[in-house]
Amino acid sequence: MAGKEATLVLLDVGASMYEPYKQAQGKKITRLELAVDCLGMMIQQKIFNYKNHEVGLVLFGTEEAEDGNTFYIQTLSTPDLEFYRNVTELINHDIPKIQGGDIFDALDKSVSTLDEYVKTKKIDKKIFVLTAGFGQTDYNEKKIAKLVKMIEKVDVKINFIALDFMNEYDVELDDPTKPENQEILNDRMLNAVYENQQQSINSRLTYYMVQELRNHMRIFPANIAFELYSQFHTKQMQARASFRGDFQINDETNIQVLIYKRCTEEKLPSLKKHSAIGDFSTEPSRNIVRNDTIHYNPEDPNMNPIERENIIKGYLYGRNLIPVDSIMEDKMKYQCPRSFQLLGFVDKSQIPRHYFMSSVDMVVSIDCEKAKKSLSSLIIALIATKKVAIARFVGREKGSPKLVVLLPHKSKSYSCFWMISLPTTEDIRHFQFAALRKSTPNQQIAVASLIDKMDLENLPNQSGEPEELLKMKYVANPTRQYFQQVVMHKAITRTDVIPPISPLILEYLHPEQRVYNYAQDAIQRVKNAFKFKVNEIKQQQDKKVFWKQLFDEQTTQQVQQQIQEEVVEINREEEEMVNMFAKQKLGFNDDIIQEIGSVDPISDFKKMITEKRVDQVDSALQQIQKVIISLVDQSIKGSFFPKALECLKEMRKACISEDETPVFNKFLFVLKDKYNQSMFWAQIVQQGITLISNIENQKSTVTAEEAQDFLNKEDNKHQQMVDQLQHEEEDLLADIE
């Protein structure tokens, strides 16, 4: 989970932001609309994923500002739906007279605001600037140098997003270690042509800042829409090792490694049902619908509940159903210790990509020089020999072993293994397909040319240079983004209308439009090489002949009438059956026990307690108390004492499970006051039926010591009765022997 973060968004709302966005590739969208869309996506991410982040919004270039430039529309706080609604309404404001705001004045004030707000707290500080660069400024290089020093002192990260502005800037060329690239970039920025002089001044000062603040400032020209949107789609995750242990090379060599998740499946957040009957509340914990599961035998017309401990798994062995309890199931499982063991090496070509069965994990050495050298030497050797490693991996104790492939990887900053699961013989399924017709050499050449033309990694751009069209770094999860878009739309509009997915997101999901245009010649070649024809699907005629077709028309009419009568009768019986089961589920049953009898009070009490169709807990507890007192009072020389004690024990169990401990404790005090000098209470003490303590149930106010002292503190007469009862039992046992 990401830490705390304070973000200020500086949005230029001058007249230049209401002009069409030139890099939209034929789409009608203004610069402000694009900026508001980006800001809205960022707020969505903060609301859904980052509960500890605070966001503030500053508009500059507005005539409503007191200082003529900056206007705070949202102070730093946790973003909510009201903030999101205000942002979406920015595009409806009147167009101001000034072209744009002072970028550097707004940046200066925002840095000071962040510094005053955060002070000494451990909070990451960020600033997003969205502008077209048309605003006038009084800043020169001297003032910019002071601003640079303040940014370094405050330690704030700045993301400068330019709309139709600084398009010549290329972050890949901005590398001090490569002077030739840096010189090319400097020439581009100095010779850049803009619409007016103010854009040129702002471009020069901004470029000066990014050269001085390489660790604190980044520029993202908006002509690369993917990079623009990636700022709001990236989800920060705290790296936690899923495995820490030895990588066993052989019996004598081990390397201590850490395994991290490189990529994992993105899952949508779970939704909870809230009752529409209850009073509306913004608290998430209010009005939650909870499911109550009842297990019963489907052959039981009364649907008597079955306790969960009485349910056991069963597995079919042929036609027989074999019961298997949890203890037997654990014994049958393959017990495997936690381990990571190298099995051998194979050529990289022998592991095709379609063998990969899982997400990718990253294997690195621990922070130890010896371990780093050992693992790095193995990685370099595998890369040099074009081989991969095969290993056996068990992530946790008693876990299932996996066959994994370790792909060596080395870059400038680190070296590691990419670990991916491989299939075993049992995982492979061989499917048989009909043989294809043999293709001609002309057809093979046409298809090979089409495949080469549709390569997404090397597609020429407008300048003819190859580029990767589908960069996964800038591709967000469309399912998650659309889910958040729908939730935010429904939360604000409160309608059932589902909005269409954003066209800017669909743009990077469908790069094939550019591919089709580039591969027109290859597509036409495939059409000429193959003869395509429409395959008409014929409707299959029913080959079955029903018995009614064999009779004449008169007989058919009689049979149809008889069938209709039978259908009516069947529908009537089904309706009666449905009504009967509906009554059972709704609780309108004649078999529901309303009263505890004296013949089998324990059975009646259990049924009333476990009855889920009607709440009878309070009634059952009151009745069982009366039954216990009645059994004790009607006993002749303690004849009904055992039965009363069993009822008392069952009542104690029910009070613990149903959180009714005060009822039992109060009733036990009543029994003690009433029967303290009788043999019945002596049997209660002998069997240790005491108060319910807070260890057995948290709702009890009685401690374990108080519960024990409740039975121990008795007078001498009562102790004599207990001793007499024990002597009688010993004499009875002696007689039996």
UniProtKB/TrEMBL annotation:
One of its GO terms (biological process) is double-strand break repair via nonhomologous end joining. Belongs to the ku80 family. InterPro entries: DNA_bd_Ku70/Ku80 (IPR006164), Ku80 (IPR024193), Ku_N (IPR005161), Ku_PK_bind (IPR014893). The keyword DNA damage applies. One of its GO terms (molecular function) is damaged DNA binding. Transmembrane segments: none annotated. One of its GO terms (cellular component) is Ku70:Ku80 complex. Coiled coil: none annotated. It comes from Paramecium primaurelia. Its main location: nucleus. This is Ku domain-containing protein. It is found in: Nucleus.
